[in-house]
Write a structure and sequence with these properties.
194 residues; alpha/beta; Cobalt-precorrin-4 Transmethylase, domain 1; Methyltransferase, Cobalt-precorrin-4 Transmethylase, Domain 2; 2 domains; five-stranded parallel beta sheet; 10 strands; elongated
Length: 194
């Protein structure tokens, strides 16, 4: 199986991913991943209903993962001999849009992790003077990030990056006292320490 990153939005596929998708005998992915890659799909495309059953897919299948498969993506389901093709993730695009260097950045996903776990990880990275890219959860978003920054007395800018790569892309900045509000479910948060 090949797990191919299709990027965070349209136009973010690598040539390697395009080649794998074009030559795939069968393609699987989420509705969004299939939509991003649809102009390169030449075979049957199937929407994944149960991600825990990816190991049952044919050996020659190409599985589409939004963003990068190894940044909160489907790469976690890869088997020993599966091939993973990287993609342009929200981490890459946020850093590019905001001019944030990747070398001083920590990446955290709060998806399904619970607010306490996410809070502890965020505190740990902020205390190391790192900037942080956070994939939020409904229970841990920009307001909770602002609260952590206030409690730690850390001066930082908070950015919400919504719909990255899409025409309706929107990046909004704020502070711990006035955090940005989001208008989309498809977003990430960048915390840049001053």
């Amino acid at each position: 199986m090949i797990i191919a990153g299709v990027g965070v939005g349209p136009g973010m596929l690598t040539e390697e991913a395009i080649d794998a998708i074009r030559n795939a005998p069968v393609v699987y992915g989420s509705k969004r991943a299939i939509e991003i890659a649809e102009k390169y799909i030449t075979s049957e495309a199937n929407e994944i209903k149960d991600y825990k059953k990816l190991h049952l897919l044919p050996e020659d299948a190409v599985v589409l993962s939004t963003g990068d498969p190894l940044f909160s993506g489907l790469g976690k389901f890869a088997r020993k001999n599966d091939r993973i093709i990287p993609g342009i993730s929200s981490l890459h695009l946020s850093c590019a849009r905001l001019g944030v260097n990747l070398t001083g950045l920590a990446a955290i996903t709060a998806h399904g992790r619970g607010p306490e776990h996410s809070r502890n990880l965020l505190i740990q990275e902020l205390k190391l003077d790192k900037n942080v890219l956070l994939l939020p959860d409904s229970s841990f978003g920009s307001s909770e990030v602002a609260e952590v920054l206030c409690n730690l007395n850390i001066n930082a800018d908070i950015y919400t990056c919504e719909n990255l790569g899409y025409p309706e892309e929107r990046i909004t900045g704020g502070t711990q006292k006035n955090p940005p509000e989001v208008q989309s479910k498809l977003y990430c948060i960048m915390i840049v320490q001053k």
